[in-house]
# Entry
Amino acid sequence: MKNYITLPLILVLIAVCAIRLHAQKYVGGDISMLKKFVDEGAIYYDNNGVATAPLTIFKNAGWNSMRVRLFVDPTKASLDDRKQGAIQDFDYVIALGKEIKAAGFSFMLDFHYSDTWTDPGKHATPDVWTGMSVEQLKAQVYEYTKDCLEQLNAAQATPDFIQVGNEIITGMLWQTGRIYAGGGAPTGGSWDSFAGYLASSIKACNELCPDAKIVIHTELHAPADVPKFYKNLAAYSGVSYDIVGLSYYPDFHGDLSVLEDVINTLETQNSTKNKQIMIVETGYGFKWQLGGAKYDFTSTWTLTEAGQKAFAHDLIEMLNSHANVNGLYWWYPEYNLNNIVFPDGDDRETTPPADWNKNFTAGYWNGALFHYCTGKALAALYELKNFASASGIKTIGQLDNLQLDNSVYDLQGRKVNVNVKKGVYIVNGKKVIIK
# Structure
């Protein structure tokens, strides 16, 4: 016998599913330099001025997930790149991954598949893999990924999320894996090769970490290309993934509407509408703009501790209106020169000491969540918890404030008019509270 479900009941079920998507959210940061700062002697203070282990500060602030990058052989990176933080070899990542998991955080592993930084402008093939054919590279990606994950499993540092490549909107393992996001590729590259590298990585991930969620990570330097990239990727059956990962920095990419427009498209186009979305990198300054900034939002979010917190608040408010978005990670929150360059507790902002240029601090980061002199946690660090704690239920004053694309139903699936009493209703397939 067939069981028929009425439209109102379907809407209720959709709403319930939407609420459950919000039930498990992940908030944290890319803390890839944390071990280095701690090893160098950095001292971290919570917002009450109490010296505290940084992972404890993050945990007490409501964070529940951490991201760490991995390079194949960072000793082959340039000196400038190493000074800017391209130092995470496999031993480093195992040690930090173990700490993250032991502290009760979920762990996102970010494979760069390079010896140094990768982004839309560069994806150098690792030095030791140079000269390999496409087929050899596919096999190498598989074996390397498998070996890394085997060792992480053995060390009780199994990742919960795995990024197969970093900001790969222009491909990976150049030149053979270089592509155009909207389709096609420059001379020497191809989508087939690129997708083959991804498929090899994903195959190893599925075999060694079957419970881990796979993240495909892009960024927003050309926002219209992002949905096109994922649409083109859908043609390759071997590239099966769970999460769209995005980098978003207002200083580089524009205001929040740029990010929201991309999210809206991803939530509706066939290739991505069933995918979860994570902002795996974001940040904003508390004293100076980010280096190389293209946009100035200081009239919206001042370059102060309060302004940085206001950016975090506005970003979270927007993200929490999207049921598919379940992750938010701040980039490089751990930057802290307290007790490394600046004597512990010293605040000589205008006259930095002579040993400012430590061999790993040349890449000064203006978007940290600790004050670089004093090591004290900033307000935005604590604001981020509001992403993970959001219920996903919108509260409004009255129904006629909404743009209604569908009818309104109560929780029993009965159609109601807009002149309803206080309570919980299903509007446009989502749950809202009328207060």
Observations:
- The radius of gyration is 23 Å.
- The longest helix spans residues 134-154.
- The chain is about 30% helix and 15% strand.
